Amino acid sequence: MNSSITPKLNILKTETSRVKEVDFDNLVFGSTFTDHMFECDFKDGEWQNPTIRPYGNLSISPGAKVFHYGQAVFEGMKAYKDDDGRVWLFRPEANFERINKSAKRLAIPEFPRDIFFEALTTLVRMDKEWIQPGLGNSLYIRPFVMATQVGVSASPSDEYKFMILAAPAQAYYTGDVKVVIADHYSRAANGGVGAAKAAGNYGAQFYPTNLAREKGFHQIIWTDDSEHKYLEEAGTMNVFFRVNDTLITAPVSDRILDGVTRKSVIDIAKHNNIDVEVRPVLVSEIVEAAKDGSLKEIFGAGTAAVISPVSAIGHKENVYELTKPEDSYSARFKKDLMSIQHNITEDPFGWRFEVK
Amino acid sequence: MNSSITPKLNILKTETSRVKEVDFDNLVFGSTFTDHMFECDFKDGEWQNPTIRPYGNLSISPGAKVFHYGQAVFEGMKAYKDDDGRVWLFRPEANFERINKSAKRLAIPEFPRDIFFEALTTLVRMDKEWIQPGLGNSLYIRPFVMATQVGVSASPSDEYKFMILAAPAQAYYTGDVKVVIADHYSRAANGGVGAAKAAGNYGAQFYPTNLAREKGFHQIIWTDDSEHKYLEEAGTMNVFFRVNDTLITAPVSDRILDGVTRKSVIDIAKHNNIDVEVRPVLVSEIVEAAKDGSLKEIFGAGTAAVISPVSAIGHKENVYELTKPEDSYSARFKKDLMSIQHNITEDPFGWRFEVK
Ligand SMILES: Cc1ncc(COP(=O)(O)O)c(C=O)c1O
Ligand SMILES: Cc1ncc(COP(=O)(O)O)c(C=O)c1O
């Protein structure tokens, strides 16, 4: 791809925008899409015909490999509008790199940087009216790639479709989040695809998560599949533990997604002179800390939910409640992170990226 | 579903069959589909509108959950035509039960038995001309279910599409199969979805399989993800080892698919008074047996490939060649199995199911 000439982005504008029909105060996350979407096909060994066109259905063969073999990866990122109407992305380079890392693990050809950024910024600019200003509001952006070759034989596709959808979003989680520590089901294998945002990783979690819901929990904190001894991450969030004043989180691995929010939280914490330990986290030490009161906070970190404080954690037959401390780390990180994202404060890290 | 009335199967016949255009001697596995396909939607808590209609594209939202979360499962089964033109399925009940087992693990609602069998047999009957008689020829049948609800938030879909496609097939593998024992990548986690025919399990294997191909192997024999100590199964086949005159295969588990061919081979072997051991198979014992010459055969067993003899097995830096013995088990099982499938011999097990 590097040697080929970047194809020109085709643009087909909608005749009538749907933005006026949207009730922005009652959005269901990820289910209302903006006027346009981006599409680009991989055929004959090349990414071809990059096009922004009105959001609408695809015509696709039921024999397309994505339906049968889950050869698909995705990303999740957000755009924010500040009070002056300027639009910002947050660390888009990280998402670009990650989708190609995920693609590689799923034997999907990498997508070219220049088309990605041109498509992303053009789409956001065209659908700018869909972004509401105000803290917590955003445009959730979903780049994804799927195998489109027709064939029900289990081998890599030689045709793919790369797409970007965008959906206006309010805050993802509302209310208290109760989590339970996995001790039977697992999310990822050693040497598996856990570190990739592979489509199949998510469908695989729905059933165990339903079982957890029936017991009153919202999310599962996954553990290693061998012994359920180490705490890893939640379904769409990395997880942080505060024991006394130290912030602890698991290192990324081939089982754990390298979250953009996670690494941003680590940097913000260090910037605030908070002790951060990135190391394997034992279930037993967190349960002990819950019992002796040194466990002050647990929170999830991810693009959709931003920072999601945990109010109770279940392990085997026990549930440990957590009371938010006055000097809450999670509240502080959330404020710092959102202030940067929404262009309210300085950005000492250089994370903001303006869509002009 | 049990209490509801079975909806009537709608049938829309094609106006012009494509069967005359097909070169049955040069089929690429799983890429030419018959004239018709079956479709049934799950909406408002019910399977609705079961329909057989001409094979063709679907119109589907790019926001459908199957593209993003891999919430999809499938089956693979075959129909055979005997020399009298009668058409037979092989143990279809096992595939029906397994797709619902897979569905459950992926939080997909189960599909009703009566619609499944009515759709399956009607479709096979309608597209009967597509089945070639002759050993090795068959109609490969692909039932599958996918999440169709529109929404890019990671939670179970509340709408699904169940489909059946059919594709005429010749033998799946040609030539020697060289396999390599996994010692870095893995297929399935303990407590994961390995035992389900979940779409995501297959896409996840493509990259490691490509790496194996670069080293001259066709398939990987997967091992446990914790220590790579136990031999489990191949990408689309269960695996059997013959050490001296004993047939050994791993027990099914939550990491290993309960293959229909596997259990049929076990029954055929027992019927032939061959010693069968279903127990964890150590990598080390098979490598030892390869070295001391007691390893006589390895073969894969699966619907697509039927029985696939292995000619060489790689482990770390070594490759062990296998010479097919005169009294080959794999040849015998293949013959016995195919003779039953094609209605050439008696069926002492009651596996054949005629499509009248
Ligand atoms: C499995 C998993 N872990 C963690 C995260 C958080 O990553 P990020 O902060 O980049 O959104 C996500 C979602 O995005 C995820 O899917
Ligand atoms: C992972 C896996 N193992 C084993 C098999 C063999 O199962 P069966 O004999 O039912 O086709 C298959 C394919 O069908 C498979 O996908």
Automatic annotation (TrEMBL), chains A, B:
Keyword Amino-acid biosynthesis found: yes
Gene3D superfamilies documented for this protein: 3.30.470.10, D-amino Acid Aminotransferase, subunit A, domain 2
Cofactor: pyridoxal 5'-phosphate
Gene Ontology biological-process annotations: amino acid biosynthetic process; branched-chain amino acid biosynthetic process
Keyword Amino-acid biosynthesis carried by entry: yes
InterPro entries assigned: Aminotrans_IV, Aminotrans_IV_CS, Aminotransferase-like, B_amino_transII, BCAT-like_C, BCAT-like_N, BCAT_family
Sites of N6-(pyridoxal phosphate)lysine modification: K197
Origin: domain of life: Bacteria
Top-level class of the enzyme under EC nomenclature: transferase
Keywords assigned by UniProt, alphabetized: Amino-acid biosynthesis, Aminotransferase, Branched-chain amino acid biosynthesis, Pyridoxal phosphate, Transferase
Catalysed reaction equations from the record: L-valine + 2-oxoglutarate = 3-methyl-2-oxobutanoate + L-glutamate; L-isoleucine + 2-oxoglutarate = (S)-3-methyl-2-oxopentanoate + L-glutamate; L-leucine + 2-oxoglutarate = 4-methyl-2-oxopentanoate + L-glutamate
One GO MF term attached to the UniProt entry: branched-chain-amino-acid transaminase activity
Signal peptide coordinates: none
Family per record: Belongs to the class-IV pyridoxal-phosphate-dependent aminotransferase family.
Purpose of the protein: Acts on leucine, isoleucine and valine.
Protein's UniProt name: Branched-chain-amino-acid aminotransferase
Top-level taxonomy: Bacteria, Pseudomonadati, Bacteroidota, Flavobacteriia, Flavobacteriales
